[in-house]
Amino acid sequence: MTAEEMKKKWGEMSEEMISGMTEWRGLHPKATFGEIEEELDERMGEMRARMLSDAAMNSRKKKWGEEEQPKCKKCGTEIQKRGEKKRKLQTWGGKEVELEREYGVCPKCGESFFPSG
Ligand SMILES: [Zn+2]
């Protein structure tokens, strides 16, 4: 995703979030401060998770082995690349973010790693 595409996507996402929130407010004219806050947190948390995921995917410029061969954190053996795998990360507010990450396995101890984080 280019920066421009990301900007466009996030722009649409925030508009969606805002219109969803105003719509919700219209449907809940008697909502308390706490209820509004809860609803807002939920919607913003959702957006936050999606932005985080997009931004993290976008930062993956380094390809496997471009810098140095990733090594096993346990025994120091060079990790063998196995391909891409979805990695689930927990973020603020209990949201889950799924990232496609290159991963590898240590031939010695069988541990798998995501060197790109
Ligand atoms: Zn190892």
* Biggest beta-sheet profile: 3 strands, antiparallel
Looking at how many chains there are and whether they match, the oligomeric state comes to: single chain
The number of strands is 3
Q: From the alpha-carbon coordinates, what is the Rg to the nearest angstrom?
A: 20 Å
Inertia-based shape: elongated
Instruction: Give the mean pLDDT.
Output: 86
Topology:
Layout: H1 3-27, H2 33-58, E1 80-91, E2 95-105, E3 112-113
Antiparallel strand pairs: 1-2, 2-3
Helix pairs in contact: 1-2
This protein binds zinc ion.
Sum up the structure in keywords.
2 helices, three-stranded antiparallel β-sheet, alpha+beta, 21% strand, binds zinc ion, 117 residues
Describe the protein in words.
The chain is of the alpha+beta class. It is 44% helix and 21% strand. The protein has two helices and three strands; from the N terminus they run ααβββ. The chain has helices at residues 3-27, 33-58; strands spanning 80-91, 95-105, 112-113. It has a three-stranded antiparallel beta sheet, with helices on one face. β2 and β3 (112-113) form a beta hairpin. It starts with a helix and ends with a strand. The model has no long low-confidence stretch (mean pLDDT 86).
